[in-house]
Amino acid sequence: MKYGRLEVRLDKEHQLKVADLAATYKTTASEAVRRAIDEAHDKAMLARRLLAVKRLSEANLEDVPDMDTLKRQLGRHPDYLQDDVEDSARR
Question: Whole-model pTM?
Answer without folding.
Answer: 0.62
